[in-house]
């Protein structure tokens, strides 16, 4: 089946630093999505990318849909303590919303 | 704020008992998805339902697990004769009944099942 490789698994950074994480796949996706999960909560959509090469921003977050349609990255600039959580990439192969999730990047921000 | 509502938030069962997890989708949404998250892992698709129809249950274990979304009332994920390996967070997500499936899902807060 389709699998996503998400890296890094975890990051420990100082407040104010920039963060970068990425996802790769052996399969092509029509859509890449990035979700954030706070402790004890469900995932919340951060950014959705629909076209190969697309670069999209949402506040301090920037994400790109790779040209090959097999990868995506998420950058967070000037991190703050509330950025703590687990960030998941997800690929949408098309059709109904049966998403393939990466294993997540666990982010810790030290003040 | 009529988001996706799941209950119970936490459920403890002994091996061999049954677990029933409920999900009410967002207002206006008629498509429901169930995902399972094992500790330290990502979410794995289990089943996709519309009202009174199971569309795709390819992610459901063949035995003990069942799901329904009746005409009236919430969607139910039922796990019979639970085993320790069923301990996980079960998330429900919904999407609107549009022709475009964008991949954008609205998740509930999850039901965390612990099997003793």
Form type of chain A: globular
Low-confidence parts of chain A: none
> How large, in whole angstroms, is the Cα Rg of chain B?
13 Å
- Calculate the terminal CA-CA distance of chain A, rounded to whole Å: 41 Å
The percent range for strand residues of chain A is over 45%
Rg of chain A, please? 13 Å
How would you explain this protein's 3D organization?
- Chain A is mostly beta strands.
- Helix content of chain A is 0%, strand content 54%.
- In chain A, strands 2, 4, 5, 9, 10 and 11 form a six-stranded mixed sheet that branches.
- The termini of chain A are far apart.
- The mean pLDDT of chain A is 93.
- With 116 residues, chain B is mainly β.
- Chain B has strands at 5-7, 10-13, 19-24, 31-37, 43-50, 53-56, 65-68, 75-79, 88-95, 106-107, 111-115.
- In chain B, the strands form two sheets. In chain B, strands 2, 4, 5, 6, 9, 10 and 11 form a seven-stranded mixed sheet that branches. Chain B has a four-stranded antiparallel sheet with strand order 1-3-8-7, with no helix packed on it.
- Chain B is globular and about 40 Å long.
- The mean pLDDT of chain B is 92.
- Classes of the chains: A mainly beta (111), B mainly beta (116).
- Chains A and B meet through strand 4, strand 5, strand 9 and strand 10 of A and strand 4, strand 5, strand 9 and strand 10 of B.
List keywords for this structure.
heterodimer; A: 111 residues; mainly beta; 6-stranded mixed beta sheet; 5-stranded antiparallel beta sheet; globular; B: 116 residues; 7-stranded mixed beta sheet; 4-stranded antiparallel beta sheet; 11 strands; 0% helix
């Amino acid at each position: 089946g389709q699998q996503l490789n998400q890296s890094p698994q975890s990051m420990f950074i100082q407040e104010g630093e920039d963060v970068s994480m990425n996802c790769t796949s052996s399969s092509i996706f029509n859509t890449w999505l990035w979700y954030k999960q706070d402790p004890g909560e469900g995932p919340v959509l951060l950014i959705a990318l629909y076209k190969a090469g697309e670069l999209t921003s949402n506040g301090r977050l920037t994400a790109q849909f790779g040209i090959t349609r097999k990868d995506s990255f998420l950058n967070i600039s000037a991190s703050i303590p509330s950025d703590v959580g687990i960030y998941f990439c997800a690929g949408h192969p098309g059709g109904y919303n049966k998403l393939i999730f990466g294993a997540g990047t666990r982010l810790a921000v030290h003040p | 704020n009529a988001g996706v509502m799941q209950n119970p938030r936490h459920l403890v069962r002994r091996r061999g008992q049954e677990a029933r997890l409920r999900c009410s989708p967002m207002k206006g949404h008629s498509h429901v998805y169930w995902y399972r998250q094992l500790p330290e892992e990502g979410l794995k698709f289990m089943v996709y339902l519309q009202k009174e129809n199971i569309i795709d249950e390819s992610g459901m274990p063949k035995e003990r697990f069942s799901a329904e979304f009746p005409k009236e009332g919430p969607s139910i994920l039922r796990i019979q004769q639970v085993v320790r390996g069923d301990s996980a967070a079960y998330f429900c997500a919904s999407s609107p009944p549009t022709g475009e499936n964008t991949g954008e899902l609205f998740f509930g807060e999850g039901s965390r099942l612990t099997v003793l």
